[in-house]
Amino acid sequence: MTSLPSLPTPKKMGLVIDLDTCVGCHACVVNCKEWNTGGYGAALSDQDPYGADVSGAWLNRVHSFEVVPEGGELVGEAGEARIVHFPKSCLHCENAPCVTVCPTGASYKRADDGIVLVDEDMCIGCGLCAWACPYGAREMDLAAGVMKKCTLCIDRIYNETLEEADRQPACVRTCPANARHFGDLGDPNSAVSILVAERGGIDLMPEQGTRPVNKYLPPRPRKALAEAAHALPKDDISGATGFFAWLDNMLDRI
Predict the structure, then answer these.
(1) pTM for this predicted structure
(2) Which of 13, 75, 139, 158 is the S-S candidate for 81 at Cβ 3.0 to 4.6 Å?
(3) pLDDT tens by residue, 177-228
(4) Cα dihedral 138→142→144→147 (10° resolution)
(5) Angle made by CA atoms 69, 75, 78, in degrees to the nearest 5
């Protein structure tokens, strides 16, 4: 079996995902697939992508959930309904069970920055790491016969031929809502660590004892729509003439 680093890694590179601003557009998913198909490692294959039984290897997925408001049994019964989009990929755990269960050493955790990777030349496709991962973050590539996972775009973040702004994971670089952040969570003064401290970032399933590096920022409390509408300032349009007076008259009839 494979061993984890004997000492805590000096860096803890990872992601901070803001569940309050993620809009579920899947741009991170698509760009992850594109970059990892043409970049590090072998291409991420698809099986019958346009058929009835679609399957394929995706290193990042977004799940969407309807949230039941407090005090309500059904969505919308109490308060205002909302949907939370939940991106999920490898969390690069400090106590990574996918590493310790690997019989060949293919799964390993880097001692310098804590990133968990798979050596595809050593992987035999046994699937033990997928069984051990409590987050379902491992993907079997059926065409290659090996297990694949998020690499934090290691071929980007240390690539000095890229502009500094591009030395981020593809999912972070492409997010239009700025819901994904990347950095060293082992440094309390880093931007991501400060963000986690300010917003009360949380671990996913902490009861598993895996100590994931990636953090999630919980959704902020919402005001009821009616309450928010009453808080909006009302403009004085009593002196409006022409088109604006006609428009105000028509809106009053709706």
Answers:
(1) 0.83
(2) 75
(3) 999 999 999 999 999 999 999 999 999 999 999 999 999 999 887 665 556 5
(4) 10
(5) 45
